[in-house]
Amino acid sequence: MTFTRLTRACAALILCAGVSTYALAHNPMCECKEIPGEQIQCTGGFSDGSGAPGVTLDVIGYDETILVPGKLGEDSTLTFKKPSAEFYVLFDAGPGHVVEIDQADIQPQ
């Protein structure tokens, strides 16, 4: 391999490594907490600090029925009345960007 080809190959590897690091830095995040009035407030976003307005956040019963269909608001939050049935929260920003939060993991504020 000539010096020019070696330089190009190294540059390509460095560029690919930088792109893959950026792709991994965009992980979905969601946090839910119980707030006064038998309410649950969930906040979604991504690990790079960006919000997630408009992203689907559904409250689903253990029997897989959707108890509360929803989308995050402009402030990347959704507040809903705590269901009487057992449930989990599904934050779904697309393939590979899904977070599930079981009701047992939701703590009071």
Structure report:
The chain has 109 residues and is of the alpha+beta class. Helices cover 20% and strands 39% of the residues. The chain has 1 helix and 8 strands; from the N terminus they run αββββββββ. It has a 4-stranded mixed beta sheet, with no helix packed on it. Strands 4-3-6-7 form a 4-stranded antiparallel beta sheet, with no helix packed on it. A hairpin with a 3-residue loop joins strand 1 (28-35) and strand 2. Mean pLDDT is 85; it is low at 9-23. Residues 1-25 form the signal peptide. Keywords: Signal.
CATH architecture: Sandwich
* pLDDT averaged residue by residue: 85
Which spans have pLDDT < 50 for at least 5 consecutive residues?
9-23
The count of β-strands is 8
How are helices and strands ordered from N to C? HEEEEEEEE
Distance between the termini: 62 Å
Strand content: 35-45%
Query: What topology, given as strand order, has the largest sheet?
Result: 5-2-1-8
Mind summarizing the main beta sheet? 4 strands, mixed
Radius of gyration: 20 Å
How would the global form be characterised? globular
| Approximate helicity band | 10-25%
Keywords:
4-stranded antiparallel beta sheet; signal; 8 strands; alpha+beta; 109 residues; single chain; 4-stranded mixed beta sheet
SSE layout:
Elements: H1 3-24, E1 28-35, E2 39-46, E3 56-61, E4 66-68, E5 77-81, E6 87-92, E7 98-102, E8 107-108
Parallel strand pairs: 1-8
Antiparallel strand pairs: 1-2, 2-5, 3-4, 3-6, 6-7
Signal peptide: 1-25
Keywords: Signal
